[in-house]
Amino acid sequence: MPRGMLEVIATKQNFYRVANFPNVIGLIDGSHIPIAAPSLNEDIYVNRKNFHSLNIQAVCDANQIFLDFCN
Description:
- This protein is α+β, with helices and mostly antiparallel strands and 71 residues long.
- Helices cover 23% and strands 30% of the residues.
- The mean pLDDT is 93.
- Keywords: Metal-binding.
């Protein structure tokens, strides 16, 4: 995430330039990323569509660069 007021202002300007979104400093989304079935606790990685995945949440900037993620 942007650090300091100058980075926040620059990030807001980038989002506005790219998508006409005012006052945005990051975009957040989540997705199921397919994985090979693990050998341990295989059942806890099966999602509602019945395939193995990790549920990942990510934040990116106006240049489509990942700033943060968690699973």
